Amino acid sequence: METKQVTEAKWSHGKTIPVKNVQALASNAVELTEEAIKRYIRPARTTDVVAHGGQSIPMIDLGMLLDPQTYRLEAARLKSACEEWGFFQVKNHGIPDTVLENMRNNLEHFFKLPLDEKNKFGQLPGDLQGYVLDWCDRLYLVTQPPHDREMRPWPSNPATFRESIESYSSELMRVTGSLMQIIASNLGVDLDRDTYVSQALRMTYYPACPVAHDKVLGISPHSDISILTLVWELNLVEGLQIKRQNAWVPVKPHPKALVVNVGDFLEILTNGKYQSIEHRVTVNPNKERMSISAFHLPKYDMSVGPLSGILAGGEPKKYKTLRVDEVAKVVFSSKLDGKKTKDYAMFST
Ligand code: OGA
Ligand code: NI
Questions:
Q1: What pLDDT shows up at residue 146?
Q2: Which atom of ligand 1 is nearest to the CA of 138?
Q3: Atom of ligand 1 nearest to the CA of 202
Q4: Distance in angstroms (rounded) separating the CA atoms of residues 156 and 18
Q5: Alpha helices in 225-321 (DSSP H)
Q6: How far is it, in rounded angstroms, from Cα 264 to Cα 102?
């Protein structure tokens, strides 16, 4: 079996772990049996509760948020999406179609390259050795601020890929900046731009899994460490599910919208007013899935704790003030499993 040596970037503190390439594993139809993929099988999945039909995550219109005529109404909808859901979709984001198309074409091209070619670039491990593995391959890049970039893992094949990533990354910074300004205003606080100046992109390829799609997971349940994560489900295949009232609620990909979710750092800043929500990714029996998660994070050497404006009413602090790099170290050195940051950052009650 082929393995790849992976080196994690700044945000994950340079560990090196060999993991199998799931796409290569999945493409070998002859060898693809439940036995061959036993490290990916999760017996507990058979008892999952999935909420079909009914609720779907709120849709927020960025165009309306940026128009003074419609601002108030839409900002109130955003507030309730952050308080009640922790997850929403955003349409009218203003990202030019060409930026999205270039990014999609380049990423599809990249994932189709031979394994040797892909392995020239750094990839994030599917998971730690000894654990049940996630059914996906990932490309993880630190993209912002520009001086934090380490270019070696940025693919130069296809030739336009770096340029596409650059444009996509700055468009997402713009959308995040707009959302964060309105979120700050909804919270009645001043928010330093340093709280969302860093960005990392995780591009994920989930092969189809005809033998055991209902027994593997594309990504284990976790919450994101970020302030805000923006996910683009670029080939519109379902798979993302969020935990709500003890059931998994599927997110239906929308051709014109990005998925946005509250991350752990925003939960800490808001002293728990906005909660990060656990989510996971399931795998399709016949269709591959691709997504790009953009994690927006505070400046690496910043300390983050509940905002004084939030605590103005004399509310007690529920979370410690911690350095961002310290939290990142703890989270990235452990298996994805539920709300890790919360266990670490919360005062015990
Ligand atoms: C993640 C994540 C969701 C998706 O990368 O943290 O939750 O749809 N991704 O791929
Ligand atoms: Ni996530």
A1: 95
A2: 5
A3: 5
A4: 23
A5: 264-269
A6: 31
